[in-house]
Amino acid sequence: MISSAELAKRTNVNPAQLRKDLSYFGRFGVRGVGYDVAGLASRVSAILGLERDWRLVLVGIGPIGKALVRYPQFSQQGYNFVAAIDIDGKHIGEEIDPGIGIWPFDRLMQIVKENRVDLAVIAVTPDKAQEVADVLVSSGIKGILNFSSSRLVVPSGVNVQYVDFTVLLDSLTYNISRNTFRAEERWASVTEHPDKWTNEHSWPIIQSNHRAQPVETL
Amino acid sequence: MISSAELAKRTNVNPAQLRKDLSYFGRFGVRGVGYDVAGLASRVSAILGLERDWRLVLVGIGPIGKALVRYPQFSQQGYNFVAAIDIDGKHIGEEIDPGIGIWPFDRLMQIVKENRVDLAVIAVTPDKAQEVADVLVSSGIKGILNFSSSRLVVPSGVNVQYVDFTVLLDSLTYNISRNTFRAEERWASVTEHPDKWTNEHSWPIIQSNHRAQPVETL
After folding, report:
1. In terms of C-beta density within 10 A (0-12 exposed, 13-18 middle, 19 or more buried), how is residue B32 classed?
2. Which of chain B's residues have a Cβ under 8 Å away from the Cβ of A168?
3. How many CB atoms lie under 10 A from the CB of residue A96?
4. Mean pLDDT, chain B cut into blocks of 10 residues (218 residues total)
5. Which of A80, A104, B15, B192 has the highest Cβ tally under 10 A?
């Protein structure tokens, strides 16, 4: 058994938030006693879809893409790359070191279908990301981890997670700059709405897919 | 001049959200006319702290860390690595290819202070991340991009952005699994609260630092 206080301490999260988050998925734990560790782990795994393995394809074999294929935590958690696509066609037939073959872009759909690939990592330049996403969607991919700085237009039912390292640094520098901001009248609204930018969870635990909205004119 | 509709289209975001986000920082644009492009770019740069260069140190020289040092968008946007720390001490004196020297961990504080380093990237294993963060905080670092899967305990005023690739894949598989979920009574609350997990912005644009909260007992 483990208490929510101990669980929160070990994971550096707020215990009240931990209990609240779990409560969205039903009843967990017993007041005054805590959680059954094995039961909790099993239910959380089921909720997250971690009771099975997932097959991934990498599109874009730059340094970030290669680092992800070699990321040890992925295979430990059941995320297995089955192929890599070289969008520039310069390394076709080579392998990324754990034996992941590098294929041309025009084989992407076939690879996804024949290997029943579940998820794709896009690590190409922003100008090519949408074209890659379109092929992935046509191939039946339902989840994309997108490292390009392009926002992708995908149908409802296809999930996209964005990782933009520059945006992450920008938010650090925004916070640092704001702390040293000299109040000027034209920026007055920054300090009037500080709470708008606070968020108990700084991890993007669960996020929905972005969908285009009806366009209005300024 | 550019309209919010056109700006939203080019960036694949919702135009209403775009206008709302900008409005937190004061008045932007003229109704029925749009935004002055140069003026808007300059004000957004100022808000994000991008009108100056920022100096970074990398701690942890695995594949992810090296890929970040070589990430071309960083230097284009004024983010410049000045040094890398090899926590295992195996590559001291070598360089990561654009001429970034590799130093031992016990030189970290001196490097930060002498080079007036602003930001740090932590790309070490989870067990070492807090020790690294403690030295960074003691050195005066105010912004940390943390690739380890450890949550960090840092004082108020130090900003941390978390990037956990496994968590990002977990949220994709959660969304995919949820879409194919067979309703079972014990999971009924999942479908009762679908809106809890939706979020117009799937990019973690601005996030606050996590702070430990008072502990309550379950």
Report:
1. exposed
2. 145, 161, 163, 204
3. 21
4. 89 87 85 88 86 94 94 90 96 88 97 97 96 97 95 94 93 85 37 35 36 36
5. B15
